[in-house]
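R.M. (postdoc): so does anyone remember the format we settled on? I'll just put the structure tokens first.
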């Protein structure tokens, strides 16, 4: 990898660097969600085993810890869902109709394949005979 502050870096290299940073951010958000979910269950289990005496009709400490931690896991999930595509800057997993699919293998808007470092990946090949506005260049 090249340094993105390197003035001799090509545009493609700079794009790849930006994409690599974006995918790292995505990966961190996934790990944060996973760790918060697993950590919450573990913490609730520890709290429940530490304070096993439950009075009938009262909420156990483990359940209370679990219920209080759900918003934190939800916030981690929202952070992942709001992750933006490094190419089009829209939510990567959200289609235009608002439907979220976190298992989507490519951007819902521009088709960038997941984990791609190529800014042009997933785009249809350009036809040199057709200009940017769709007019023929013959
Ligand atoms: Zn996109």
């Amino acid at each position: 990898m090249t340094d993105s502050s390197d003035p001799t870096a090509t545009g493609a290299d700079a794009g790849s660097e930006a994409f690599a940073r974006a995918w790292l951010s995505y990966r961190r958000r996934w790990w944060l969600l996973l760790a918060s979910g697993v950590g919450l269950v573990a913490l609730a289990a520890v709290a429940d085993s530490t304070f096993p005496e439950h009075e009938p009709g009262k909420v156990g400490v483990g359940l209370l810890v679990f219920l209080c931690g759900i918003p934190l896991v939800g916030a981690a999930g929202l952070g992942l869902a709001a992750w933006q595509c490094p190419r089009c800057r829209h939510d990567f997993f959200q289609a235009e109709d608002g439907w979220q699919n976190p298992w989507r293998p490519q951007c819902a808007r521009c088709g960038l394949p997941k984990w791609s470092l190529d800014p042009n990946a997933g785009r249809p090949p350009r036809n040199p005979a057709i200009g940017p506005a769709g007019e023929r260049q013959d």
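R.M.: ...and that's the designed sequence above, right after the tokens. Also worth knowing: The mean pLDDT is 84. Helices lie at 11-50, 61-81.
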